Amino acid sequence: MPTFVSCIFKTQVNVWSVLTGSTHWFLAIVWVLAVLSWTLFVPLRADAQQFYIIGNDRGGYLHDRLNELEELKRNGVQVEIRGRVCYSTCTMFLGLPETCVSPDTIFGFHGPSRSGRRLNEEDFDYFSQIMADHYPEPLKTWFMKKARNRINGVFKVKGSELIRMGVPACRTA
User: Fold this and answer.
1) CA–CA–CA angle 49, 47, 64 (5° rounding)
2) What is the DSSP secondary structure assignment for residue 78, as one 8-state letter?
3) Is residue 6 helix, strand or coil?
4) What is the dihedral of CA 45, 47, 51, 52, to 10 degrees?
5) How many angstroms separate the CA atoms of 155 and 8, rounded?
6) How far apart are CA 8 and CA 55, in angstroms?
7) Can you tell me whether residue 67 is helix, strand or coil?
8) Residue 133 per-residue DSSP state
9) Are 46 and 38 in contact (CB under 8 A)?
10) In this structure, how many other beta carbons lie within 10 angstroms of the beta carbon of residue 127?
11) What is the C-alpha to C-alpha distance for residues 116 and 153, in angstroms, rounded to an integer?
């Protein structure tokens, strides 16, 4: 029974005999396979646009959302908010470059809290500013003057209103 090493040696000898033969078909095949494998395994261009589509998102913890936003921004991912609702920290996607919204999505804004309880004034101002920094103008100013003061419930704003304020509308499918 042939050993693994003898099989490899025999294969190498057979390949060598083809290479040294009169035909160059083997070299052509190797070259084609090399080119094909390179095109299959080379990653896509770094500037290829990636999309992240937001469905219904009722928010979450500020810290978690800030990490998610940073990752999306670092990777140049374009966000499309297309769900029925985008509440709380979901609204912070609006501050990412090239984010677009569906005119039918309902956005819900409220101020920072700890599980629905009001924060002390210093923390309230600090976290309100962090949230506002993720909104485009004039939404940012409106949030700081009005929306951040709502702790229970949300201010509902339709995507069509945000589009009138300058947020890009998503292309229809």
Assistant:
1) 65
2) E
3) helix
4) 100
5) 71
6) 54
7) helix
8) T
9) no
10) 17
11) 9
Compute the distance between CA of residue 23 and CA of residue 51 in angstroms, rounded to an integer.
49
- pTM of this prediction? 0.69
pLDDT in tens, 4-53: 334 333 434 444 444 445 455 444 444 444 434 333 333 333 445 688 89
Residue 114 in contact with residue 83, Cβ under 8 Å?
no
Nearest to 127 by CA among 111, 106, 145: 111
Residue spans of alpha helices (H) in the chain: 4-19, 25-41, 62-74, 121-132, 139-145, 159-164
Which two tokens mark 87?
A: 């509440």
Structure tokens at 128: 């309100």
Residue with tokens 């998503």: 170
| Cβ-contact 136, 91 below 8 angstroms | no
Alpha-carbon distances of 54 from 51, 82, 94, 113, 117, rounded to whole Å: 10, 6, 11, 24, 28
